[in-house]
Specification:
The structure is a single chain. Helices cover 29% and strands 25% of the residues. By secondary structure, the protein is of the alpha+beta class. The protein has one domain (7-61, 76-113). Strands 2-1-4-3 form a 4-stranded antiparallel β-sheet. Strand 1 and strand 2 form a beta hairpin. The longest helix is centred in the C-terminal third of the chain and has 18 residues, at 94-111.
């Protein structure tokens, strides 16, 4: 048993209208990755003193309340592709973080600015 991430990548189709994007991100469990995204994991479990990209800020206001369950049970937030790509990954980032950053780069190139909306369950 552990913590898992629930997420969507989205792009703004028109002001205030976001659409989900398909992605190759697998969401594999990595407590180091979760800590980097802002989740307050047990630092010993994550084996890190990583600085998070941004403090958790809740779900975006434009997420319909009926979609809340898509993002897990707790610790909701979102990050822009610019925030992710300008952040310094933790030392020994590992494969999960490297693959995540590469996917954010790909989506950013293809779509312009995107956001990563997420939460956790477990």
């Amino acid at each position: 048993m552990g913590i898992d991430i629930c997420w969507r990548f989205q792009r703004e189709e028109k002001p205030g209208k976001w659409i989900n994007l398909s992605s190759n991100y697998k969401g594999d469990r990595s407590y180091l990755h979760f800590a980097w995204l802002g989740f307050d994991v047990d630092r010993e479990r994550a084996s890190t003193s990583a600085v998070f990209i941004h403090a958790l800020r809740g779900l975006p206001d434009d997420i319909p309340s009926e979609d809340d369950d898509l993002f897990g049970e707790h610790s909701y937030s979102w990050l822009t592709s610019e925030e992710i790509l300008s952040a310094i990954p933790p030392d020994n980032a590992g494969e999960v973080i490297q693959e995540f950053v590469e996917e954010v780069k790909r989506l950013h190139v293809e779509n312009g600015s995107v956001r990563f909306v997420f939460g956790f369950e477990g």
